[in-house]
Amino acid sequence: MRSQFFNNLEQGQQLPGHFALQNSKMLRVHLNGDVLARQGSMVAFQGQMEFDYEGAGGIGKFMKKALTGEGVPLMRVKGQGLLFAANDADDIHLFYLENEGLTVNGKNILAYDSHLQSDIQRVQGAGIAAGGLFNTTLTGTGWVALTTHGTPVMLDCGRAPTFADGQSAVAWSTSLQVGVNRTMKAGALIGRGSGEAMQLAYQGQGFVLIQASEGPTVAPHTH
């Protein structure tokens, strides 16, 4: 799997293929066919393009989305030209899959090649112990663009046992074994809670992408 952090790229630098970073917060797609993108993520385009709602892809996927709340509302973009996409000025990270799989938190998906296969699956090893954690799995060969809240870090799980907060873990290799690690100390303040805290534990050859927060917080009401 090839990936590249945006802060190692010069602005507007083209990567192999048709996904590139216009800057750290904007994706540029050289479109000649179609691509799947988050609904509402288009900020500009040059050329001729059509934007269509993309359904769940069958009753099975529709039911998984409805029951799990996982996934992302998608649109199919068809045409030729340059597509520019972004989401809430979040940072963007690119992956190129080469006949392999990536497990992703659906809310972090910005766009991906339309020929990649997608499914909603329970996170291996987390199950009920993690409150029924489900993620989106993308497999095949092609580009994936993810958003992160803050600049991420990519950890090589082959170097050492790796643990991450479930809300901070954005994506990881499907080759990894995933389990649950708990801290039972009464004063633990790991994650957005206290007392018993839970983290996802990763083992094997692969990586996990961690964002710099547990996600944006919701501002309190003033009325």
TrEMBL record:
Q: Which Pfam families match?
A: AIM24 (PF01987)
Q: Which domain of life is it from?
A: Bacteria
**By what name is this protein known?**
AIM24 family protein
